[in-house]
Structure formats: structure tokens, C-alpha cells
Specification:
The complex is a heterodimer of chains A (about 110) and B (about 110). Chain A has about 110 residues and is mainly β. Chain A is built from no helices and eleven strands. In chain A, the strands form two sheets. In chain A, strands 2, 4, 5, 6, 9, 10 and 11 form a seven-stranded mixed sheet that branches. Chain A is globular. The termini of chain A are far apart. In chain B, strand 5 and strand 6 form a beta hairpin. The N and C termini of chain B lie far apart (about 40 Å). Classes of the chains: A mainly beta (about 110), B mainly beta (about 110). Chains A and B meet through strand 4, strand 5 and strand 10 of A and strand 6 and strand 11 of B.
Chain lengths: ~110, ~110
Amino acid sequence: EPEVTQTPSHQVTQMGQEVILRCVPISNHLYFYWYRQILGQKVEFLVSFYNNEISEKSEIFDDQFSVERPDGSNFTLKIRSTKLEDSAMYFCASSKGQQETQYFGPGTRLLVL
Amino acid sequence: GDSVTQMEGPVTLSEEAFLTINCTYTATGYPSLFWYVQYPGEGLQLLLKATKADDKGSNKGFEATYRKETTSFHLEKGSVQVSDSAVYFCALSDRTGGSYIPTFGRGTSLIVHP
């Protein structure tokens, strides 16, 4: 069964460094998403992406964040200058349509020191 | 704004015990309600959903009924197995604002002992 994959599974970085989290959505899906979950807190929506542009974003998704679909398979989340409070589990998801079920990847655990 | 509140975990049960995980919500419109499950090392998977009041979602022996009068969507299973050990997330999607993005609760960890 097709699944969403994410790399790396764990990432440790120093405050102020740039990180890129990678996702490979399911191949025939058109909508892509990033969520995060700070330890012990809720899963929070960051951004959705469709037709090579951001379709929706939350207040969390500020200028430090960017997303890109650099080729036909990858979907990336970049954090330009990481802060301690960016430490969280980051989930990628994809769906066929806007109202369709979202399929989630296993997550990347980011730790900022 | 919209919000989801679910019971604190972990919930620890013996195999074949009855499971209830409580979930209540606040929404401005008429949301769809969901339960997602996350098994260790995996992503969130949609477990079941209900789109209108009094609907019952069911899957893999789990059930939840959309109760508009109590704004609740409690997850139940009659006899849990060790393999049900996972984190369970309640979520809603309220299309009032034109968005289909789900709002999640914090998750409830379930541990089932043999």
C-alpha cells in the first residue's frame, strides 16, 4: 500500500542553523501538508500546498518557514534559523483532494539545542 | 475558535477490557469528527469518522457516535488487544470558514497489557 515517507526520522541541530525536512507524498496525491507536535501538546497545522503554491497557512508558519516541491516527488519544509521552540515532531501528509482523507508520514523528530 | 479536548493519558488496560477515550469539541459550525491512531514508529492513520449528528463511525472494532447535544465523540471498543496499544487523536474539521484542515486534540496514549 502506498505510504508517505519522511526523512530524516530524527534531526539534532544548533540554534540558528537551517534545517530541511523532507517528505515523499503518495504519488497520485495533489494536496500536501505539514503539521507539528510539540512534546505533550496538540498536533498543529502549519501549511497546505497545492498546484505549486501555498493554499493555506497558520499563524505559526511565519517568515522563518518555507515549503517547496523541488521535483515531482519531494515536498520539503525549511526552517531558516531554528529556535529552541522549534523542537517538535513534524508530520507531512498528503491527500488526493481537498476534502479527501489525509495520509500522514511517520514524522521527523527535530531537536534544537 | 474550534478546539478539541480529549482525556489525559496514558490509559492502561488489560487485554479484553472495555475501552472508552473521551473527546469533546467546540466548533462554530457543523464539523466532521475524526479519530486518528498512531502506532509506534508510524504516522497518523484515520481510524474512523462521522460527518453529521447521530452518525456512528466504526472500524476495527472501534466505534464513536457524533453527539451534537453533548458535543462529544467518545471512542469505544468492547475488548482491546495488545496490538491496540497506540496514541489516539480526536479531531474535527469545520468547513464554515472554507477550510478542511483538521483541528487535533493532544492525543491519548493507550497501553494494553497481556
